[in-house]
Amino acid sequence: MEKLLQSSRILVILTIIVCAASACLLYASSVSIVYGVIVDTVMNIPVKADEGKRLAVKLLKVLDTLLIALTFQIIASALYRLFLTKEESKDKGLLKALDIKNFHDLKITLMQVASVILVILFLEQAVEIGATLETLYFGLAVGFVILAVTFAARQMNH
């Protein structure tokens, strides 16, 4: 049984590699998208409010992608530090900045990042579609999810 559990470290390493590769791909994609947006904006400078809104939505979507990439990076870094490194090196770098000391702290951090991503998705919806009943329903749904995440995170801290 112990051999089986020791070999499960390979699964953690595989998860770390997949998360790190995903983060790198999303970062590279975001850089490429921002470059395209910059070139497009310089070539066709927005002169109308709707064009400015479209630019804002594009940039919000890039921000959303960057936050998802950061989430993958946090997961990869946290899994590596929590499961594969020695105890003395756990109090350095990204995990110290995010105050992640165990798997429980990682879950709370991920819930907080997910809440921020939901807020950005709502902003995209509000700017792109405007003040419609659909936007109100979406905002209420996002609000309920954030309320549930906040409640769950507080309960997990006790």
Fold and architecture overview:
The protein has six helices and no strands. The longest helix has about 35 residues, at about 10-45. Helix 2 (about 10-45) runs antiparallel to helix 3, helix 3 (about 50-85) packs antiparallel against helix 5 and helix 5 packs antiparallel against helix 6. It has one domain. The chain starts with a helix and ends with a helix. Helix content is about 85%, strand content about 0%. It has helices spanning about 1-5, 10-45, 50-85, 95, 105-130, 135-155. The protein has about 160 residues and is mostly helical. It is globular.
Task: Write out key terms for the chains shown.
single chain; 158 residues
Radius of gyration, in angstroms, nearest whole number: 20 Å
* Poorly predicted sequence stretches spanning 5 or more consecutive residues: none
Strand tally, please? 0
Q: What structural class do you assign from the helix and strand content?
A: mainly alpha
Shape: globular
Query: Span from first to last CA?
Result: 34 Å
Q: Main beta sheet, described?
A: none
How many structural domains are formed by the residues? 1
What's the helix-strand series? HHHHHH
Average predicted confidence as pLDDT: 84
What percent of residues are in strands? Answer: under 5%
- Helical fraction equals over 70%
